[in-house]
Amino acid sequence: MRHSNRWVALVMAAGWALSLPGCRADDLANVTPDEPAGIFAPATRVPAGTTLVVRLARAVSSASVGPGDPWRGVTTTRVLAGDRVIVPEGAEVSGTVAAVRKARRGDRAMVHLKVRAVLVDGRNLHLEADSKPVIAASPRVVLREGMVMTFTTSDAVALR
Question: Rounded distance, CA 87 to CA 85, Å?
């Protein structure tokens, strides 16, 4: 009985929403009773494997950072979900150092960064994305300020 009440409420809300100017039927296509979406701003899914291209705001060096240390950057390209821009070019990105390895005899230095959030329209969107670890041929890894890196989302994320 309780589950059918959700469907009734969903159908009523959909009918009401469709009567609003500018609302289309396909805006409500992915709504289910177990995952309610806002009527005016339906949830957007960022699929796993989505690419973020980020320019580092300051240098990151394997000689001076440790796991968990923060880093910042900005997106250099926009991210789309269908025809909708969900992350504009120039959005602020924050992340952490996932792993660091100092160079030792027989082992090269390495830095691995992760994205944790992207600031869009004043809202922090929690978005997990990974870079490939950068391994140096020299005693330390230095990711210079302004360096462009590519990150890939590991899991699908629903943004509201």
Answer: 6
Nearest to 118 by CA among 127, 110, 107: 127
Q: Residues 107-141: pLDDT tens digits? A: 889 999 999 999 998 998 888 999 999 999 788 89
Q: Kindly report the backbone phi and psi dihedral angles of residue 125, in degrees, each rounded to the nearest multiple of 5, phi listed first.
A: -95, 120
Entry pTM: 0.70
- Report the C-alpha gap between 71 and 158 in whole angstroms: 24
